[in-house]
Design goal:
This protein has 1 helix and 7 strands; from the N terminus they run ββαβββββ. The chain has 93 residues and is an alpha+beta fold. A hairpin with a 4-residue loop joins strand 1 and strand 2. It starts with a strand and ends with a strand.
């Protein structure tokens, strides 16, 4: 199994996104989270209290008339000392 941490910038919201991709396995998104990402986070010393799962992180794109577009959700938000440090988006593979 090979794990890749892929970086990209979401240009519309001007945020950095890191995606952990598992290669050579067939997992659903839930399997990817429970079998691949969670163990790696704990192995790296992250505590459960620092990990927020399935969380909305934007109010959505600003639209005319004071409206907002669709909110975006992340699979993991890593926090420490009250600061948002990293976003992890799990994908099925």
């Amino acid at each position: 199994m090979i794990l890749w941490l892929v970086f990209c910038r979401h240009t519309h919201y001007n945020i950095d996104i890191y995606v952990l991709v598992a290669q050579s396995m067939r997992y659903s998104e839930a399997d990817t989270r429970s079998k691949l990402i969670d163990p790696k986070l704990f192995d790296q010393g992250w505590q459960e209290s620092q990990i927020v799962r399935e969380r909305s992180f934007t109010d959505g794109r600003k639209l005319p008339g004071g409206k907002r577009g669709k909110s975006l959700y992340v699979d993991y938000l890593l926090k420490d000392y009250g600061l948002n440090l990293a976003i992890i988006e799990a994908k099925k593979y």
